[in-house]
Automatic annotation (TrEMBL):
This is Tubulin polymerization-promoting protein. GO terms for cellular component: cytoplasm; microtubule. It is found in: Cytoplasm. Its main location: cytoplasm. It comes from Erinaceus europaeus. Belongs to the TPPP family.
Amino acid sequence: MADGKARSAPRTPPCSPGDPVRDRPEGAAEVAEVSALEEAFRRFAVHGDSRASGREMNGKNWTKLCRDCQVIDGRTVTVTDVDIVFSKIKSKGCRTITFEQFREALGELARKRFKDKNEEDAVREVHHLVEGKAPIISGVTKAVSSPTVSRLTDTSRFTGSHKERFDPSGRGKGKAGRVDLVDTSGYVSGYKHAGTYDQKVQGGK
């Protein structure tokens, strides 16, 4: 250049918080993993309790999470193992665990669940089992058939005034089965052809 000054190299602008993955610091991928794990924790923490905040998890939901996410395999990790770890991790006098204690508990189970892997890989495998999962809603429980209950609910066996409250199909008659309604139609009680007079008269013309 004429002025003899060397042109300085262009400087790379610093990354803003909204920039994409460029120059992502180490461990950024792990942040997404923790987020998915925490979301699963929150879903199970509020399961069955509309007043729960999602910041703490009780023992019942902890066991359900381990069962639904297949952390419990019935061989290396059992329900008993899950209960023992929960009692060990939770604070003294508390009935719930926080998310940090939850991660610690998963680490305890990871060493039992994946004995053939090193500790880091075992924890990663357990996290993958849990991440993004939600409680499994089981089907409606079927009523157990009981001869006593069947006898009490079989309307064909009812007698007296109780029998009058149901029609032959077992359907309730409503008010007609509870109150003596006066029939003002002019027909004799029990007459099978009530209401057909007009049809007969019209048919005879």
